[in-house]
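Fold sample X.
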Amino acid sequence: MIPLPDFPPGVIATHAIIAFASAVLMSALCLATSRARIWYFLTIAFWIPDIVVAFLLPSLVLSSEFFPQEPIPTLISVIQGFLISPSLTLPLMGVLVNEQPNATRTARALGASWSDRVSLLWLPLLRRRMILGSIATALLAIIMTFALLWRPLAGP
């Protein structure tokens, strides 16, 4: 059995929150850009390799002697969050790429304000997918945090 180091309270939660927040930020940036089909297919193509790289990143970058020094683990958590962001982006992009382009224009022409369009058009359309993507991303953020923090201690 590999001995695991003791962590100060809150380290696991802190790194998981950092990874999740950076995934949400990257997903928001992806969704704010053009929703061309090519970006959707590229995101699908890189989704699994991104998760594998995010999981292996701590073992590729850190050595057990170098580990406790901040801000390197925090930076790795941010990079891991960017790499797991397709788990949040893909369910939403699947709907947005295939939605009718006239839906927003029609709602605007009928006098719906921005808040009405969000609450009556986009939230009902995206609610389940946002929940699914958020749960998947939160679980991946926790797994990536354990991949970052559970490192074998340096041998004698």
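Fold sample Y, listed below.
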Amino acid sequence: MGDPGSEKKADINGAAVGASPCLEPQDPWALPDLQDQGVKWSDLGSAQKVHRVLLGLAKALALLGLLYLFICSLDFLSTAFRLVGGKTAGKVMSQNEVLKNPVVGLMIGVLSTVLVQSSSTSSSIIITMVGAGLVEVRDAIPIIMGANIGTSVTNTIVSLMQSSERNEFRRAFAAATVHDMFNWLTVIILLPLEAAFGILYHLTSAIVDSAKWTTNKHANKDFLQVLTKPFTGLIIKLDKKVIQQIAIGDESYYNHSLIKRCCNMTADGCVKPCEFALQSLQWQDSFIGLLLLGISLLTLCTCLILMVKLLHSMLRGRIAVIIKTTVNAEYRFPYSILVGYVAIGIGCIMTILVQSSSIFTSALTPLAGIGVISLERIYPLTLGSNIGTTTTGILAALAADAGQIRYTLQIAFCHLFFNLLGILMFYPIPYTRLPIHLAKMLGNTTAKYRWFSIMYLICMFIVFPATVFGLSMAGMIVFMAVLIPVFVLLVAVVAINVLQRKVPLFLPECLRTWMWLPEWMRSLDPLDRIVNSCVGRVACCQKLCPPQSAHNGAILPIREVSSQMNFVESRRSSCPSGDSQTDLQAFENSAFNWTKEKQNGVTFITPL
């Protein structure tokens, strides 16, 4: 038998030497091979060719129709959130005293944008407040930063619609959260610098003072509404100035409805009432908002499901080859450098055309999920979208009164240069593209624990900002006493994690792993067991809370071998022959160590 420590046991592809290397673990981030399963064009008859062409045209028209409904559903979603929380957002923004704290201003920007579901709306409100002299430019800069963060909540919600397939959900969630990661990293660096030195304030002040600006009342154009307003106006119409007037402190608007029921008001009263489907409902704004929220979410889910199915059926064969060779192509130097910047330009132009970064990035999310666009290509498109969305604020600033245009333009330029500085920090050098790596970490976590996506959405966009805002209301002493220790602890944990991965020998032996901590402090598994036990039996929640495992989430038989190593046994068919193969996936026993060695495409584990 020999020394058991010298025996080699296969890690994957079976236990025998010489097993086929075709079963090497696949990269979950690799785009799927979109192969044509149909008959070749040359083998089709005349009638079949006509049928295929007509079917392709019908699918293309159906896709355009679904995309239109998808955009309209996002508009309804934004309207619903405004009806439910728009007045609250206006009142929150009118808290002038607490806005002196930059961290509080940041969180108010996040909460306000989540409540109105539109960074364009929240930034326009901020610009209106600056123009009215209620908020100084310095105090408004953190709110603009928060609005930039809050705008990414929409595409994160959209990514949840692809939770039924694990790898699609992984890619879609990462594509949605890469926007979050970029915004948060930029804020973490620029907010302290802005509070200490006023970088954005002085930069934009110099730019505004360098030229003479004139008011343009017709500058604020919304290109997308030319297409969507005829349909959305049939369902509901809003009076957008109500939130703005509440934000600037006009108490007379507190009891005004956000729903626009009169389209022509004179001194004698309403001459022409507005006509739309929900006009006859005399409910409170919040109840109508909840009804519209349900309708918009149902429409959004239906459109996304049908769009994904259509894209799956259309993106095969020659079309798939064209997409892979254009959208995700890797070009030689120096053209490889230019591709990303071209993508940034495309993202900027498309967002300017639709006047909404949420719509553009939400349309990209399902494409990333099904594997049409890689995360590395989504990233520059998202950065371009961040730049494009600032044009809404600039146009709104140009429409301000002549006496206030300097201040409104300055805060609008702060929004623009916030994104430009973020791009300079996290894009030109490949090693600095941290948002991609962080988004992949979130995607992997969500693929294993699908309920994590809901928890992330609630905590990141509601609980965390609301907690910080609540602490600020308790006073500066309480605020700093809680925030500083939490921040120091977070920085220490991140630093130790980096050292554990890069240079573990620099750390004391007790800090080289987190195994000494209780399981609930270093793993999501205990919470996963609780969530599964609570909602795992509910049919509608089973997609978000499937049984998990150490490997791929399926329920796999676990067996122990004499060498004290645990193996997870699974079956898959990934060879060209289609034969079912048995995989042995090894995972660590805490009392056992080994070394890995690869021979002929097979990885072996040698016990120490």
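Sample Y note: Residues 1-23, 548-593 have pLDDT under 50 and may be disordered.
Also: Residues 474-513 form one domain.
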